[in-house]
Amino acid sequence: MWIHNPVMLEQVLCYLDIKRDDSIVDCTIGEGGHSLRFLEHLDGGTLLGIEQDEEILGRATKRLHDYAEHFIPVRDNFSNLKSIVQRTIGKGVDKIFFDLGISMYHFKESGRGFSFNRDEPLDMRLDQSKPVSALDVVNTFNRKKLTEIIWAYGEERFSNRIAHFIVGERAKNPITTSGQLADIVMRAVPKKFWPRNVHPATKTFQALRIFVNDEIEILEKALRDGVDLLRPGGRICVISFHSLEDRIVKSVFSDLNKGCHCPPDFPVCVCGGKQFIKVLTKKPAQPDEHEVEKNPASRSARLRCAVKLNTTIPTIREEEMRFSA
Ligand SMILES: C[S@@+](CC[C@H](N)C(=O)[O-])C[C@H]1O[C@@H](n2cnc3c(N)ncnc32)[C@H](O)[C@@H]1O
């Protein structure tokens, strides 16, 4: 059995700065690797673990059995973060953690076609109740839509050609396995353009997975809801694994980190905007070389962290009004 190595664990602990009676939300509990260490720090606090994949949540719940009295497992999507917190913890939280993407379990054991190195039924749904699987996308979406998905979520320069090959192949036989799909992509991407260190189907598989699980569209709202739920002084920490995700984290954090949103040529602030967080990671933290050597899957991880401010910083306009009063 594979155990997922929690990525950048020591740095996450350092940034989250967990206190014994904290209320923590792990929005992506996976196999519970990070949460196990969070729970070790608690004494009187609570950890709410959210996970949309029923099977992996079962594994985490077993693994964290010794801490059952502090642990609330919830099978749900973190897009419902606010309502989940309201019906479980029911108050403000101190720490929020996201470790985005999928777990080693999904690649190695789920049997759902996440990996181009395995020949498994094409599915790629984390939540098995979702209506559309990778099988449906690959076999029924038209070429234009396939191109858009592979380009938008994989940034794959051969998206059009790959979509063309997929449509050509499925006219002969339905594409039902990850092995078949990997083979089609390998034929679609000209050999001289194959990337040196990764499989030529990496970006296509990533794109389909992101689309099927709606990974990008829900992220911004979930991050904003997370910040909103935090008590003053609370912290939010996010690990992302590709630039599409990291761009969203960066832009949400930088938006909440700045008070005034007026155009730069306005002489004074008229928006009255408040600064909600202070970003603690000017640049995203990355795993060190020892971690990458031990766990190559960690190489693309980027960690960003912010603290919720206790007092909102006054805008220039508020300052001016204060002085002119
Ligand atoms: C990288 S893994 C987390 C690994 C975990 N930190 C550990 O150490 O074991 C990400 C997990 O988040 C889950 N997940 C992804 N998107 C989700 C969402 N929108 N809502 C709930 N869970 C999600 C995936 O099913 C996966 O198990």
Structure, described:
The structure is a single chain. The protein has 325 residues and is an alpha/beta fold. The protein folds into two domains: 9-101 and 216-324, Rossmann fold (3-Layer(aba) Sandwich); 107-212, DNA polymerase, domain 1 (Orthogonal Bundle), CATH 1.10.150. The chain has 14 helices and seven strands. The protein has helices at residues 9-16, 33-41, 54-63, 81-87, 104-108, 134-140, 143-154, 159-172, 178-188, 202-212, 219-229, 243-257, 289-294, 316-324, and strands at 23-26, 46-51, 71-75, 93-99, 230-240, 277-279, 302-308. The protein has a seven-stranded mixed beta sheet with strand order 3-2-1-4-5-7-6, sandwiched between helices. Helix 3 (54-63) links the parallel strand 2 (46-51) and strand 3 (71-75). Helix 7 (143-154) packs across helix 10 and helix 8 crosses helix 9 (178-188). It is globular, with a radius of gyration of 22 Å. The model is unreliable at 312-316 (pLDDT under 50). It binds S-adenosylmethionine (SAM). The site of S-adenosylmethionine has 22 residues, from helix 2 and strand 2.
